[in-house]
Amino acid sequence: PLNNPWHWTAFAGILRQSFMFYESGHQVEKVISHPNYDSKTKNNDIALMKLQTPLTFNDFVKPVCLPNPGLLLEPEQHCWISGWGATEEKGKTSDVLNAAMVRLIETQRCNSRYVYDNLITPAMICAGFLQGTVDSCQGDSGGPLVTSKDNVWWLIGDTSWGSGCAKAYRPGVYGNVTVFTDWIYRQMR
């Protein structure tokens, strides 16, 4: 059912979920899930939506760049997450779009036995803070993990999974978009 485009309407440029009642949104023409997605491990957790009509860019709706597969990211690179997810574990989703700064966490560190004990694959990246405090949460899945390099915004991750919300030694896990760039371009043809 989640692959059925009739289940989806895309909204862009709104800052409150309640504004969806006043907008028509964009109908989704096609949903493309990654063919190697593994629902158990969340490996290859990415999907694309083709809209029936293109978005119009303005002050509130802007594109983000897809990363080159070799985009060099610094350890602890500052990134931003956003979404309407819960603001606390087991909380309700937010009406207001929230955003927060997080830092990339090196895969080796995220795969340590104190964090995710080798559950992180090359198709995943970790971001947040090992002490907890800031994280994506339920309802944020699929949302962006972006970073700015040389005044260009890059989509480097999509919110995938985690253990709880903002817990110590349980940072957020994101699909590693740099691994999927070639696949994304193939789907756009």
TrEMBL record:
MF-aspect GO terms: serine-type endopeptidase activity
- Peptidase S1 domain location is 27-189
Swiss-Prot/TrEMBL keywords: Disulfide bond, Hydrolase, Membrane, Protease, Serine protease, Transmembrane
State the Gene3D superfamilies in the record: Trypsin-like serine proteases
What the entry lists under SUPFAM superfamilies is as follows: Trypsin-like serine proteases (SSF50494)
Q: Which InterPro entries match?
A: Peptidase_S1_PA, Peptidase_S1_PA_chymotrypsin, Peptidase_S1A, Trypsin_dom, TRYPSIN_SER
Instruction: List the Pfam families.
Output: Trypsin
Which superkingdom heads the taxonomic lineage of this protein's source? Answer: Eukaryota
What is one GO biological process annotated to this record? Answer: proteolysis
Q: Does the keyword Transcription apply?
A: no
Q: Looking at the keywords, is Chaperone present?
A: no
What protein is this chain from? Transmembrane protease serine 2
Q: Which organism is it from?
A: Hylobates lar
Annotated gene = TMPRSS2
